[in-house]
Amino acid sequence: MKIKGLDNAVLLLDKPAGITSFDFISKIRRIARIKKIGHSGTLDKFASGLLVICTGQATKLTRYFLESNKRYTGKIRLGIVTDTCDITGEVVSRNDLQNINEFTIREAMARFIGDSVQVPPEYSSLKIRGERASDRVRRGETVTLEGRNITITRADIIAIDCDNGTVDFDIACSKGTYIRSIARDLGEVLGTGACLQELRRTESGKFLVENAASAEDVEAYAGCKIPAFFALDPAAALCSFGRIILDEAGAAKVLNGACFKRDEVVDHEIKALETYLVFDSHEELIAIADMDIDSWWINYHSVFNKMESY
Q1: Range of the domain at 59
Q2: How far is CA 240 from the centre of its chain?
Q3: Per-residue pLDDT for 145 more than 60?
Q4: How much is the pLDDT for 67?
Q5: For 173-213, what is each residue's pLDDT tens digit?
Q6: 245: closest CA among 200, 206, 276, 222?
Q7: What CATH number does the domain containing 51 carry?
Q8: pLDDT for residue 129
């Protein structure tokens, strides 16, 4: 599977604030004329930053990027509690800030570093009996969301404005972490209440927002004005996986869903993970599989067809 234009590729995109991830991806689809597209995690409408998008046959790869750690910068507003835990929600209460100072804020934020159980916001896309929690809340239902295990590896405070009650942060966390919940919980620890005012995703796994494209960049690419710097070959995007290169007989077996033999391996590279990218003799990606080299056990995650036009 080789990329052709933006087909069969992993795209790094920079979503602006004020547009839903769905609408932004739809806009990219129209500009680049991509028919098949999938995402590996969305952002709230008020948030900006990195989206990792897969196209064509590479949509089978989204599962590998969903599991990655994330990094965010943003701003927390103290003294204001909203129903959505962010600044776009309805204000539930406004509270005094007289008893906070820089020391108490830094001490409170430090408590979040490490492993913990986090309760997601009620206004979230998490499903309760097949329906989004946010949809149930909007209908007036009372929802109870279970806590989820998360890990915060860093929670740096970049700036504090006690007069206006704002805290600028840089947080690195595990998948499934809600930064809105961190803002809510920080407000509870301080006794002031709080909500998330700004949010930007800067990293997803090994991918950086600095290497992502805006809608204007994609439009410039479509007009042949700039190269597709934001499009990655799937093999490059999954370079942490091991590599297996097969001869023609082995590749033919893979494409039919059968296991290849040891003597059909032309070359291989072992990595720490037991997941391997499987290539044909032309080094075209044809499958992803879990493998135990010693016992010769193979379990295919995905098998890719030869290059198709989308």
Answers
A1: 10-68+206-235
A2: 17
A3: yes
A4: 84
A5: 999 999 999 999 999 999 999 999 999 999 999 999 999 99
A6: 276
A7: 3.30.2350.10
A8: 67
CATH number, domain of 251, equals 2.30.130.10
Task: Please name the amino acid found at residue 127.
Answer: K
Tokens 């370079």: give the residue: 239
Show Cβ contacts of residue 106 under 8 Å, excluding neighbours closer than 6 positions: 157, 160
DSSP-assigned beta bridge partners for residue 204: 70, 207
126 located within any domain: yes
For 269-291, b/e burial (b = at least 16 CB within 10 A) is: eeeeeebbbbbbeeeebbbbbeb
Contacts of 182 (CB under 8 A, 6+ apart): 76, 112, 118, 152, 155, 171, 196
End-to-end CA distance of the chain: 13
The rounded distance, in Å, linking the Cα atoms of 267 and 86 is: 52
- Examine the domain organization and report whether 228 and 252 are in the same domain: no
Are residues 144 and 124 part of one domain? yes
Q: Are residues 57 and 168 in the same domain?
A: no
Task: Read off the pLDDT of each residue in 277-290 and give the average, rounded to a whole number.
Answer: 93
* 44 is known as an active-site residue: yes
Given 44, 86, 185, 280, which residue is catalytic?
Answer: 44
- Are residues 67 and 163 in contact, defined by beta-carbon separation less than 8 angstroms? no
Domain boundary, last residue among 235, 253, 277: 235
Is residue 310 scored above 60 in pLDDT?
A: no
Could you tell me the CA-to-CA distances from 167 to 20, 202, 267, 290 in Å, in that order?
25, 18, 52, 44
Rounded to the nearest angstrom, the gap between the alpha carbon of residue 152 and the centroid of all alpha carbons in its chain is: 16
CA distance 78 to 186: 9
| Same domain, residue pair 181 and 246 | no
Average pLDDT score over residue span 244-256: 94
Mean pLDDT of all residues belonging to the chain: 90
**Confidence (pTM):** 0.89
- Residue 127 is assigned to a structural domain of this protein: yes
Domains of the chain: total: 3
